[in-house]
Amino acid sequence: MSRPPFLVPPAGVRAYPLVTRRGAFAVLDIAPAGPPSGTALLVPGFTGSKEDFIALLAPLAAAGYRAVAVDGRGQYESAGDLARRSYALGALAEDVLAQAEALGAPAVHLVGHSLGGLISRGAVLRAAAAGRSPFASLTLMASGAGRIARGQRWRARALGAGLPVLGQRRLWWVLQPKAETSELWNFLRGRWLANSPAQLRSTGRTLRYEPDRVAALAATGLPVHVLSGERDLAWPVVELDVMARRLRARRTVIAGAEHSPNAQRPTETAAALADFWAAVGNGPGVAAAERSEAPAAAESTEPTGPVEGG
């Protein structure tokens, strides 16, 4: 899980329920001082929440962008239900489409972290199949071509099996056996307990079985940005490099970051996002031809340290 570097929203951030055609979703929303250069929707990963992007909000607003981070259905402060079909990837992708529509922007820069990248890719594919163009770009942040790596699949399987047996409270102590008194630890525990068990089990299954849909994404012509840390156990960085080449996507590696560059190196991550958005503009499909001519080169760094979970 991502560990936000702080929890108090920066000045100018509004916390409220975003009302959509598919229900209300808790968001953190910040706008620049002047007219925005664009609007971004930030979709968190497995066991995550909108707070995973909290450190990106102020620098993105300073760069001229409205940024809206969301809790997905059954995730932290967004209501869920008991039906597993509500958390299938297609249903969650439709939620993202509804969220993007509710923002009222001509086109939205979509950012998905980890599992959120798979969901966001699903939203792009659903929109393309329906002949819709609600997105200006897609950034896959620490999110790969298909299912997660073998070791991480085992962890996701164990979590899914343990939930109905142990329950969320007891399973928390298996995942985090050392009690702390810090504000962050209390937040992480509270967030874990607030997540819908059906959502956790269903999305864990998505992480284990999602197929490679890179060719379908490339066929949409949408500008894509593949961004990661310099080490990642959920989707190895070399696999993300290959995916970026297949997509003819911009590739950014954030030095000093691992699976959560949004939380571990927010300033550098925000700068990379804003630079990409400025290059592609705000119209759906803009810069697709330019992107196909010359994909951006990736930064190269040496991996360091252990990685957080997916």
Automatic annotation (TrEMBL):
The AB hydrolase-1 domain, residue ranges: 41-272
A Pfam short name: Abhydrolase_6
GO molecular-function terms, A-Z: hydrolase activity
Ribonucleoprotein is among the record's keywords: no
Region (Disordered): 287-310
Keyword annotations of the record: Hydrolase
Keyword Hydrolase tagged: yes
Transmembrane segments: none
Bias kind Low complexity: ranges: 287-304
Protein name: Alpha/beta fold hydrolase
